[in-house]
Amino acid sequence: MVLVLAIGDLHVPYRAPDLPAKFKSMLVPGKIQHIICTGNLCIKEVHDYLKNLCPSLHITRGEYDEDARYPETKTLTIGQFKLGLCHGHQVVPWGDLDSLAMLQRQLDVDILVTGHTHQFKAYKHEAGVVINPGSATGAYSSITYDVNPSFVLMDIDGLRVVVYVYELIDGEVKVDKIDFKKTGTATSHSAH
Amino acid sequence: MMIADGIEDEEKWLAEGIAGIQHNAFYLHRAVDSNNLREALKYSAQLLSELRTSRLSPHKYYELYMRAFDELRRLEMFFKDEERHGCSVLDLYELVQHAGNVLPRLYLLCTVGSVYIKSKEAPAKDVLKDLVEMCRSVQHPIRGLFLRSYLAQISRDKLPDIGSEYEGDGDTVMDAVDFVLQNFTEMNKLWVRMQHQGPIRVKEKLDKERSELRDLVGKNLHVLSQIEGVDLEIYKDTVLPRVLEQVVNCKDELAQHYLMDCIIQVFPDEYHLQTLETLLGAFPQLQPAVDIKTVLSQLMDRLSNYAASSAEVLPEFLQVEAFAKLSNAIGKVIEAQVEMPVVGAISLYVSLLTFALRVHSDRLDYVDQVLGACVKKLSGSPKLEDNKATKQVVALLTAPLEKYNDIDTALTLSNYPHVMDHLDAGTNKIMAMVLIQSIMKYNTCVSTAEKVDVLFELIKGLIKDIDGTLADELDEEDFKEEQNSVARLVHMLYNDDPEEMLQIICTVRKHIMAGGPKRLPFTVPPLVFSALKLVRRLQGLDGEVAGEEVPATPRKIFQLLNQIIEALSNVPSPELALRLYLQCAEAANDCDLEPVAYEFFTQAFVLYEEEVADSKAQVTSIHLIIGTLQRMNAFGVENRDTLTHKATGYSAKLLKKPDQCRAVYACSHLFWVDDQDGIKDGERVLLCLKRSLRIANAAQQMANVTRGTGGPVTLFVEILNKYLYFFEKGNPQVTSAAIQDLIELIKTEMQSDTATPDPASDAFFACTLRYIEFQKQKGGAMGEKYDSVRI
């Protein structure tokens, strides 16, 4: 059982002052094995905060990130899964599922984690699973109206990954989960 | 050398003294056991003579004294038992006065006095009066203090208090009070006189020795507080005035400090409250060297705790005008003690402020008053350089923040900014950070333009360069931290009412514009997004109301935004400005303001043309432009064409061929929008795809020429995927034949002699083929489409 936090588009401090207090109290060091971050933190303070949560931190570059050295894309293997990471502003049209599918094929990964739209998504298509953890601070987006703060926690266990999405709606944290199973080369899913 | 000798000598003398006592005690016990009064008196007098020594320090004298004390207790028991020695207490009282030396005589007299009072043959007050006066004969400080201390000890339970068995007629309580007060007064005089006694000593040593004895003096005050009959009246009319008289008149700083402290500790808080004026009146009369602020702070702390103990006592505070009195007293002290350093004065104000916050938290005028007094003091002094004083000022400013978690309250204190003005630049900034942190911590929202104005004035040390300091001098990390704090702060400024919100935005703008090129990249973005959020709020609402003052409208806000972002040109920060212009363009598009959106795009393109020189930055920027443009639906044909033409043009002109290729095929999406009313220009799409294919081919050839091997086929596979995309969307210009050709092309390139094996592009191609197969297997319309594609 490997816990992976997928988080991004915090836009601190240019669009949001900080993570919501309720999220902060949930995210405690020592519980998570990996963090994959879609980008747009934007400042070093946020980087340090995430690094303190978990030293295995993977970040890709968002267009507002202070640190220009983050890569455009990143791939890593966790357990039986190959994961790909990309902020998403590079993929036009923004948020377009088929264009993202192309990126997924290009990176040849089971799970593609991407952001930019500030809207949570988790769906399965031919090439695998695409996950958008949304914006952890609920930051303003030109693409999505009424953004709720959200992040994703993936529990990777053998050939199965359970995706938990945490969303802050009207001051309360709501959790939902989706199951994906990897069978041979493709993945199948069941939603709850 | 001499000191070591001295200590050794003292030990010797003490040992001698103890030996003397023990020697005489032996015979004393024998005499007592055989009921021999005469012998007992003789040996007890000899024993007590050891206490006549002048050679011991107080600490050592005390040891000797305790030995004698123990013996006197046994002696007293013997005295009490008249049957054993056959002498009446009256006679005994007479008899002991025959002792040769005065000190032993008086110790014995006190001992008999104790028995005398117990016998009730005379009123307690008479005996006590006699004793306290007789003790005058011993004027040596240490000897006298211990003697009187003995008197105090044995008389403690025999005072003619109300309800005690020794209660007398007439004004019995006053008799008790008089006795204790007199003993106290004499003891204090002796104590003060200690410093003039004996050989010249080092002051610290002397003070230390004196300190060791202070409790002997202070005990008397404790006794006074325990007298049942002493009520508020008596305390107010007699006890306090007389104690204070002695305190002031003795003119000794050690005594004054200790005794004032004692008074405050020992007597109940309600008494202090009711005698506040008298008590406070003593302070200015004390010696300049007395650390008044500690004592005053103690007093204020006790009163604060008293106030906190129950709500019922609060009216009392108001009734006695406690705050006003304390405030006046502090003012007088500061005035009187000209030599007092600034830090002393400020810490007094800190204590007073703490008092006000705890006791009268609803009285903001009190809080402001204290701040005002502080300003006055600071104005009269040179600029603060003393670290400690600065810390006190910061404490003064932080206290209201912590008490009232709401920054609004601090903002209404008119003197608050004036106090801050007296801080040096560095501390001013620290204080500003404290203010911001307070807002962030308590999640407070500053909700009017007026308050925002006051707030930004308070934190102006962070907002702009204040005379003298240059932003360059500052450590870069610290500077970033400061500016990021200001950025965060902007998000805490909010009002539901759009008009007020617009005013807030204008106010913030006014302040940050003075920040200079180093600060703008931090402060402009949050303001821009704050304004964009306001635009979104207004989107649903209707625009102008004729005749009234023009309300906040998206149009007005966009004008403002234009000006705000333009300020970045002075930094210069072209990439950031470009991004912000694109954000505004999208927002303007959503408001259906075509010319405004077009203007923003123009600005973005101008920046791209003239300022974005770095090739990597160009790639990102052009993709942002394409991505934003792709989402625009407010543009008419002409405007749209101009912009897409520019976008594709710049895409093709990127430095590296692969970048060109990708940007150009990204442009294909400009001509196909999946919406119902979206543009669907199949030809232009194909033109883009073909163009990107040409570029990919050129790149391949270039690689062959320059490196001798072919480049990776990734670009071709990407383009293939794009073909598939539009094929599936139903672009008639994209045919299955074209797809077939592309597949063949890729295969050929991969198998060619000059091909560079690349697992990544191999995998990519394999995934793509797999996808096509998947689509074929779907059957239905999609399966049919793909039917003619062979892989």
UniProtKB/TrEMBL annotation, chain A:
Belongs to the VPS29 family. Keywords: Protein transport, Transport. Residues 4-157 form the Calcineurin-like phosphoesterase domain. GO terms for biological process: protein transport; retrograde transport, endosome to Golgi. The keyword Transport applies. InterPro entries: Calcineurin-like_PHP_lpxH, Metallo-depent_PP-like, Phosphodiesterase_MJ0936/Vps29, Vps29. SUPFAM superfamilies: Metallo-dependent phosphatases. The gene is LOC113699242. This is Vacuolar protein sorting-associated protein 29. GO terms for cellular component: cytoplasmic vesicle; cytosol; retromer complex.
From TrEMBL, chain B:
The keyword Transport applies. Keywords: Membrane, Protein transport, Transport. It comes from Coffea arabica (Arabian coffee). GO terms for biological process: intracellular protein transport; retrograde transport, endosome to Golgi. This is Vacuolar protein sorting-associated protein 35. SUPFAM superfamilies: ARM repeat (SSF48371). One of its GO terms (cellular component) is retromer, cargo-selective complex. The gene is LOC113712282. It holds the Pfam family Vps35. Belongs to the VPS35 family. Plays a role in vesicular protein sorting. It is a peripheral membrane protein. Its main location: membrane. Gene3D superfamilies: Vacuolar protein sorting-associated protein 35, helical subcomplex Vps35-C. It is found in: Membrane.
